Amino acid sequence: MANNTEEAKTGASFSSIDYVQLVIYPVILLFGSIGNILVMLVIWNKKRHRKINDYFILNLAIGDFWMVTISTSVDFFLKFREFPFGDLLCKGVWPLMTMCLFASVFTLTCMAIERWHTIVKPLAPRLTVIKVLWVLLFTWIAGLGCVSPLTVVAHQRGRSCTETWPSFAMRQAYTVTVVSLQYALPLFIITIAYARISIFLKRRTRLKISDSSKRSAAVLRRQANNAKINKNLRTIVTLFAIFMLPKQVLWLWLDFGKGGDFEHFGDALIFSEFMLYIHSSTNPVVYGTILQEYRSGICHYLRRIFPFLRSSCTNSIQVHPELKLESNNNSNSMTLTNRKLFHQPESVKEIA
User: Fold this and answer.
1) pLDDT for 166 beyond 60
2) Cβ-contact 172, 255 below 8 angstroms
3) CB contact set of 25 (below 8 Å; sequence gap of 6+)
4) Collapsing DSSP states into helix, strand and coil, what is residue 16?
5) CB atoms inside a 10 Å sphere around CB 210
6) Average pLDDT over the chain, rounded to an integer
7) pLDDT reported for residue 234
8) d(C-alpha 219, C-alpha 330), whole Å
9) For residue 256, what are the CA distances in angstroms to 246, 315, 335?
10) pLDDT tens digit string along 42-59?
């Protein structure tokens, strides 16, 4: 995250990475906010037709929206002016942003478990709407609990937010804990859940084919649907693992290695944040390519906002009936947070 600056920057003082941020951040803000708002509108207008999966996606879109808008807006502002409210930036804004990302992480993990339970155990009792709402409330409460230590140890010092721990060992312990909760453990659970779904679908497809003397259209549709689900699951896990890995590695390198001594460590942090923001912004795109109902709903609003997209958007939602994927059999994209999104160590104060 970009540092607090003691005075506004001038054009001459901007570095190349600053110019990159000034170009990319508005694009990410526009794309991510509009995309997540469209997803929320689609779900909101489903009303009585909402499924359990829709509540998870709605919670994820809310977390992504606030994370993208707060992060990029504050970063952009700090390129020109110092944050005017002192410690509120370090004790309030950055922890709030990280809490949103924690909520997204926990939501994605719960989504994976729910998808596994629904697909692999179709006869087991399903989650009710009330239970899902309690689960989603827990994701935010747990996120608040994870960032609560930061509201105590974070302080504004000169140009940055720093963490003042009673001992360096406590800081290392917190780093390991957060990396585990934000990346390692969720990735493990999500990978196992989706792998079991994939194995189950492959086995079920083989049984359907072997038990049927007629390769009916229903069997072919099931094969196509299962293949699409498997492809989507691979995409979800891959995006999660790749886009979130750099941030986790950098924080571990900083606290357990000599990352702070690396000349371009600050630039590496900024790059990892680009990855994080882009990942949150691309979730609507993933929804639109995975679920037909989301693709149709998003295109409906895009056609109303941008009439010139009418023909191209209409063409994009034409799907062969045999390849139409039911939303009940799908998973959804994910986004994941960094360890301490706002933290800027003493050794990298001059990032911005």
Assistant:
1) yes
2) yes
3) 72, 75, 76, 277
4) helix
5) 8
6) 78
7) 77
8) 18
9) 15, 52, 25
10) 888 887 788 888 899 899
User: How distant, in Å, are the alpha carbons of 53, 122, 126, 140, 200 from that of 117?
Assistant: 12, 7, 8, 22, 11
Give the pair of three-digit tokens for residue 108: 């994605």
Q: Which residue has the tokens 């609990």?
A: 145
pTM of this structure? 0.79
| 59 Cβ contact partners less than 8 Å away, ≥ 6 residues apart | 103, 107, 136, 139
Q: Is 90 exceeded by the pLDDT of residue 250?
A: yes
Amino acid present at 60: L
How far is residue 301's CA from residue 287's CA, in Å, rounded to a whole number?
Answer: 15
The neighbouring-strand residues paired with 154 are 163
Strand partners, 156: 161
Residue 108: CB partners within 8 Å, gap ≥ 6?
Answer: 60, 186, 190, 240, 332, 334, 335, 336
Give the residue carrying structure tokens 């780093």. 175
Task: Give the amino acid at 232.
Answer: N
Among candidates 70, 72, 147, which has minimal Cα distance to 103? 147
Task: Judge contact between 322 and 217, C-beta under 8 A.
Answer: yes
- Give 228's contacts (C-beta < 8 A, 6+ positions apart): 323, 325
Structure tokens at 208: 């359907």
Beta strands in the chain (DSSP E): 154-157, 160-163
The secondary element (H helix, E strand) that includes residue 209 is: helix 185-211
Q: Could you tell me the two tokens for 75? A: 């970063």
Which tens digit of pLDDT belongs to each residue from 262-315? Answer: 888 888 988 998 899 998 888 777 766 677 777 788 787 777 777 766 666 655
Angle value at C-alpha 94, between 57 and 186, nearest 5 degrees? 45
Amino acid at 22: L
